[in-house]
Amino acid sequence: MKLRSIEIALPDPAGAAAWMVDVWGLYPADVRGSTHYLRGTGTMPYLVAFEQSDEEYVRSTTFVCSGEELAAIKARVTDKGWAAKPVTSADPGEGAGLLVELPEGTILRFLAGSSEVEAIDGFAKASKRVSPVKLTHVVFNSADAELLGHAVEEVLGFRVSDRTKGMVFVRCNDSHHSTAFARAGFASLNHVAFEMDDLDAVMRGIGWMRDNGFAPAWGPGRHGPGDNVYAYYIAPFGPVIEYSTAVEKVPADYRTGKPDDWTWPEQRIDQWGISDKDFAGLRVAEERFRCRRDWEPAPL
Ligand SMILES: [Fe+2]
Predict the structure, then answer these.
(1) How does pLDDT run across 118-175, given as a tens digit for each residue?
(2) pLDDT mean over 265-279
């Protein structure tokens, strides 16, 4: 199981796509109808889709998986009675599977049989100042993060890696987390994290953003759970996005941490403690994109 992409509806997909290419460092992958698809240097056919809509919302977050994994999820979703529907993807990579609505409204899509593409490397990669490789996590705000952590373990076969005062971190493979649920008191998109090649690439990304007039809303820093380096920004079209390095790999028997395992000294919220955090600005951006089910449930 791998996190692949996020599908976002917003009024100006071309404008958002241009900024994500020119400033953030993604590559155009395709345009189908009014939907712009953007990829990284890795093998996923796209990481972000921007579809035209008068309203801003998250249509889905897509995971790719095997036929066996899909069948198991399908059986448990049906058993649980969650809103879901079978889908055949018309996005790059294609594939088929299901859309499912979690408690609180987060929409996930699981696809089997979707294809990957050649990685971008060498000269083409050198022509960009910075380039994300792939998505590394998509985090959601939630009213009841504990409930969602248990629900995705039971129904989707995910595993909770760590619980902190603020988050429930969830993995779907050996990466410490591919998603997480923030204890926010409301449900929405918290942020989308893009994996960079290494720490140097994160720092060069921060420099390139600075050249373009953007300062981090939080970072650079190094998180506790997952041990990843981060720099968070508020994109001009709304959502919080992150440059990140590879998240820690964990064994299958990783001991799930509790909030008391992850405490910081006073006034410290990451391992380095070198950066301020724009709590108010991030909060506004984190409330802006809600997940919305724009389809009717159907038998799987
Ligand atoms: Fe993150």
Answers:
(1) 999 876 677 777 899 999 999 999 999 999 999 999 999 999 999 999 999 999 999 9
(2) 90
Q: How close is the Cα of 231 to the center of ligand 1, in Å?
A: 9
CA of 223 to the centre of ligand 1 (A): 9
If you measure from the C-alpha of residue 33 to the centroid of ligand 1, how many angstroms do you get, rounded to a whole number?
A: 31
What is the Cα–Cα distance from 105 to 24, expressed in whole angstroms? Answer: 29
Ligand 1 centroid to Cα of residue 251, in Å, is 20
Is pLDDT of 218 > 90? yes
pLDDT at 46 over 70: yes
How far does residue 230's CA lie from ligand 1's centre (Å)? 7
Using a cut of 0.85, tell me whether the model's pTM lies above it: yes
**48-52/2-10 β-pairing:** parallel
Per the CB < 8 A criterion, the answer to whether 78 and 300 are in contact is yes
CA 282 / ligand 1 centre spacing (Å)? 13
The residue to which tokens 């809509």 are assigned: 53
Locus of tokens 């939630």? 142
**Quick one: tokens of 172?**
């779907």
CA of 190 relative to ligand 1 center, distance in Å: 9
Question: How far, in Å, is the centroid of ligand 1 from the Cα of 248?
Answer: 13
Domains, the chain: 2-115 (3.10.180.10), 128-288 (3.10.180.10)
Query: For 89-115, what is the mean pLDDT?
Result: 98
Asked whether the beta carbons of 63 and 108 are under 8 A apart, the reply is yes
Ligand 1 mean position, distance from CA 170 (Å) = 12
Query: For residue 172, what pLDDT is reported?
Result: 98
